[in-house]
Design goal:
Blueprint (H helix, E strand, L loop, with lengths): L1 H32 L5 E5 L6 H17 L3 E5 L6 H8 L7 E6 H10 L7 H4 L1 E9 L1 E6 L7 H10 L5 E4 L5 H13 L4 E4 L5 H9 L5 E5 H4 L6 E7 L13 H4 L8 E7 L5 H15 L5 H6 L3 E2 L4 H22 L5
Parallel strand pairs: 1-2, 1-3, 6-7, 6-8
Antiparallel strand pairs: 3-10, 4-10, 4-11, 5-8, 5-9
Helix pairs in contact: 1-11, 2-11, 4-13, 7-13
Length: 331
């Protein structure tokens, strides 16, 4: 009896080893034929935003290159919960993905009670497609030329330097609070509603607000009236190579950016995720696409799944620490 039992265990172990050894081969064969049918991308970026426009430009090129239709389905309600439900429950075969923003996938983790998903558990990263680095910018009337001068001004005038945002928990608010915390300065936060964003822009450009942690979309066309002092990113922007990052000038600052990225159901084979990431990057770097993305204030990232996973965790850690420091409570 023992002989038969040992033989059974040996055969079982050999079968298990064979299954493990053939799994990578099966995945590679699957990736070589991918895609064999249309791809669905559930889009949780708001309609008409720069991220939404970037996605449509990217997928139009990808569809031609990959030889299959790519269908974009808008599902922005309930903080992306609908997108979560569709994608997380889909087969992890590369035919159902979601395109989401840092606002939903990072900030929402800390700002909303009872979020419908946990991005670290319920999704696999595929690629950070695009980002829009922020800038610490001041109106020319403030009379400072560097970030250190701005910090010195704020220390001499505690609570008098005003910075605007589109509301508590927005990127603009959190970036300003991160600067306050790292520099140990007191600035006055002036929250506007998202719907009142045009007024926020107008107040900053006309000097009624001294500072705005904004994106290149606002900075680029208005350099005659405002001055970018630092880039809120992990590296300098190609648009402004002479403008240092905040971290270069303030080592305690942990940067985070506005980004748009592609996620898939957990378990997507690595060769398929890598193929999709590579095709998306190639599409965005086409000479008739990149300039249009630049016009929208977007920078092509096109990261690998592993790079995106690393950045996602860095952003979640940075925002988590900041939320605790400023005492921001989920709503």
């Amino acid at each position: 009896m023992k002989h038969h039992a040992d033989g059974f265990k040996t055969r079982s172990a050999l079968l298990a080893l064979m299954a493990l050894s053939t799994a990578p081969l099966a995945q590679n064969l699957q990736a070589q034929t991918y895609p064999a049918k249309q791809i669905l991308i559930v889009n949780s970026a708001s309609p008409g935003t720069s991220g939404d426009a970037g996605l449509r430009m990217m997928t139009a090129k990808m569809s031609v290159a990959m030889g299959q239709p790519i269908i974009i389905e808008m599902r922005t309600a309930a903080r992306g919960a609908q997108a979560y439900a569709v994608v997380s429950k889909a087969a992890p075969d590369g035919y159902t993905l979601t395109f989401g923003t840092s606002g939903t996938f990072v900030y929402g983790r800390f700002l909303f009670k009872n979020m419908a998903f946990d991005v670290l558990k319920d999704y696999a990263t595929v690629s950070m497609s695009l980002n829009s680095p922020g800038y610490v910018a001041v109106h020319n009337s403030v009379g400072v030329n560097t970030l250190q001068e701005l910090i010195g001004f704020a220390r001499k005038n505690p609570g008098k330097l005003e910075f605007g945002s589109t509301g508590n928990g927005s990127f603009f608010h959190l970036a300003g609070e991160a600067l306050k915390a790292a520099a140990g300065i007191d600035m006055l936060h002036v929250p506007y509603s998202q719907a009142n964003y045009p007024q926020l822009q107008s107040d900053f450009l006309n000097g009624r607000l001294a500072m705005f942690t904004t994106t290149w979309f606002n900075v680029g066309p208005n350099l005659a009236r405002i001055k970018p002092l630092a880039v809120i990113d992990r590296q300098r922007s190609k648009r402004t190579p002479n403008v240092p990052t905040v971290s270069e000038q303030l080592p305690g600052f942990e940067p985070f950016v506005v980004w748009w990225g592609m996620f898939a159901p957990v378990g997507i084979p690595a060769p398929i995720a890598n193929r999709f990431a590579a095709e998306s990057r190639k599409a965005m770097l086409q000479p008739d696409v990149t300039p249009k993305l630049d016009d929208l204030g977007l920078e092509v990232v096109g990261s690998t799944p592993e790079e995106f996973a690393t950045t996602l965790r860095q952003d979640i850690n940075a925002i988590g620490k900041l939320v605790k420091v400023i005492g921001l409570q989920p709503e």
